[in-house]
Amino acid sequence: METPENENFRDSIATINEDGKRNFIFPKKPSGPLYEKRKLVSYFLLAFLLAAPFIKINGNQFLLFNILERRFNIFGFPFWPQDFYLFVISMLIGVIFITLFTVGFGRIFCGWMCPQTIFLEMVFRRIEYWIDGDRNKQMRLDRQKWDAEKIKKRLFKWFIFLVISFIIANVFLAYLISGDKLLKYITEGPFQHTETLIPLVIFTSVFYFVFAWFREQVCIIACPYGRLQGVLLDNKSIVVAYDYKRGEAENGRKKFRKNEDREALGNGDCIDCMQCVNVCPTGIDIRNGTQLECVNCTACIDECDTIMEKINLPKGLIRFASEDEIERKEPFKLTARLKGYIAVLAILIGVLAGMLSLRNDVEARILRLPGQLFEHKDNGIISNVYTFKLVNKTSEEIDDLSFKLRGRDGTITIVSTSETFIVEPQGVAKGTLFIELKQSDLSGDKNELMIDVYSNGELIENTSVTFLGPRSFN
Ligand code: SF4
Ligand code: SF4
User: Fold this and answer.
1) CA 397 to each of CA 44, 393, 419: distance values in angstroms, whole numbers, following the listed order
2) Tens-digit pLDDT string for the chain (474 aa)
3) Calpha distance 436→104 (Å, rounded)
């Protein structure tokens, strides 16, 4: 294989020059069948990302990540702080799924599904192509002095970027505080809610900074998932790869000359046209091999295929392939590592499904009041005092609630509320209650009692408590 022109490509990144200053990338506007497919995927994902905080299922926001109030909805399924273990398992499943996918298919999530890439490549960059033109025009404009044309174009572009950043910040806020609250705050007037307005301004500034200036450096420098690539990928992972066997052949890549017999000359199929480099949004040369900066956006595949078509050579010089496929023509197969991840994923999904089926919409907790023992009452009655907490995880009101002792003669008296009560949707009811039992029905100083929770006569939850009584000395 020919020595790469830039031998230091693994020690430096294209977005920072030797002086440590920002090297702005001006990628060529992508085109081709894969780009068209990417567009469709991104339209769907953009619509999903923008709509998810305003979609409701059974009255629950489809996706909600209210960190401050510790309320999370995933696919319309509410997770309470009490369900934190379910949330952790769901997150683990997500991480293992992405890991499995990465081991098998490289960083394709980055190029095709990550919100950062979708917003940057499919929204901001396309606006830039519309205002500033393609790569060469953008480079020319960048070098141009600050005349009326440049000022007009820059101000127009920055204004549009700011408006879009503001819209994204609003949607991001809706994921955090809920779509309903966001719409309410907008209608009531943002200055009535400065505690939300300030984060909104901060988010807008961060999004503007990321999409107008920081850009692909998020994927190269900041994103922890990108850093994991070196650990996850191996020779069997399918990634966007340059077929160096074919591209370099015996005598390496050479410029194209009409009517030459490249095979007879020992020249590779790569004609060193640099189109794959010019189109790359992270500024790398994929011909140097798999690199950390490659987000698998597939723009170079489209570009190289177009060139191959023009010079009548087979497409696929850059394609989805593993190192082993290029080196040894080995097709993709499930490795022991992949099978291991699939097994762990299947187990975790099974555990989550089991836990979800056991999860109740109402959670009851009844605890003895700290520091209290028991009280003797008339007619040989023993009384214990408890605090109770009922969590309604649904978006429906739960009414006509009552507690009953299971399999015991005794009474439950709720203090400061009626014997039946309601819990608001997604609400919590708290209070104090007394349980009274005949001493003759006790079997020692510690008795386990089962308490059933009923709503409209239907059993909806149960919990156990310890009932204290006097020690028996017989
Ligand atoms: S686009 Fe294809 S032919 Fe052109 S430099 Fe890249 S790999 Fe070589
Ligand atoms: S090397 Fe190709 S697939 Fe990788 S980021 Fe650059 S253009 Fe996208």
Assistant:
1) 35, 10, 17
2) 444 445 566 677 788 888 888 889 999 999 999 999 999 999 999 999 999 999 998 888 999 999 888 888 888 888 877 788 888 898 899 889 988 888 888 888 899 999 999 999 999 999 999 999 999 999 999 999 999 999 999 999 999 999 999 999 999 999 999 999 999 999 998 888 888 999 999 999 999 999 999 999 999 889 988 888 778 888 889 999 999 999 999 999 999 998 888 889 999 999 999 999 999 999 999 999 988 899 999 999 999 999 999 999 999 999 999 999 999 888 888 888 889 989 999 999 999 999 888 887 788 999 988 888 899 999 899 999 999 999 888 878 888 888 999 998 999 999 866 667 788 887 888 889 999 999 989 888 899 999 999 998 899 899 999 999 888 755
3) 63
Tokens, residue 125: 């960059």
* CB burial of residue 426 (10 Å; 0-12, 13-18, 19+): middle
Q: Which ligand is nearest to the CA of 299?
A: 2
In whole angstroms, give the CA distance from residue 225 to residue 428: 38
Instruction: Decide: 391 and 362 in contact? Cβ < 8 Å.
Output: yes
3-state secondary structure of 407: coil
464 CB neighbour count, 10 Å cutoff:
10
Going from the Cα of 285 to the center of ligand 1, the distance in angstroms, rounded, reads 9
**Residue 441's Cα: distance from chain center in Å?**
55
Read off the tokens for 68.
Answer: 């401050």
SS3 133: coil
Structural contact between residues 235 and 323, judged by C-beta atoms closer than 8 angstroms = yes
Which neighbouring-strand residues pair with 415?
432
| Adjacent-strand bridge partners of 386 | 368, 433
- Give residues (CB < 6 A) around ligand 2: 240, 279-282, 284, 286, 294-300
CA distance 229 to 106: 8
For residue 272 and ligand 1, the question of a CB distance below 6 A is answered with yes
Measured between its terminal Cα atoms, the distance across the chain in Å is: 93
How far is the CA of 390 from the CAs of 160, 355, 357, 397, in angstroms?
A: 49, 20, 20, 12
What stretches of 320-362 show up as alpha helix (H) in DSSP?
323-328, 336-358
State whether the beta carbon of 304 lies less than 6 angstroms from ligand 1: yes
Say if residue 422 is exposed, middle or buried (CB neighbours under 10 Å; 0-12, 13-18, 19+): middle
> 277: CA distance to ligand 1 center in Å?
8
Q: What is the DSSP letter of 287?
A: G
301 Cα to the center of ligand 2, angstroms: 8
Structure tokens at 340: 């291991």
The residue nearest atom 3 of ligand 1, judged by CA position, is 270
Phi and psi, residue 84, nearest 5°: -55, -35
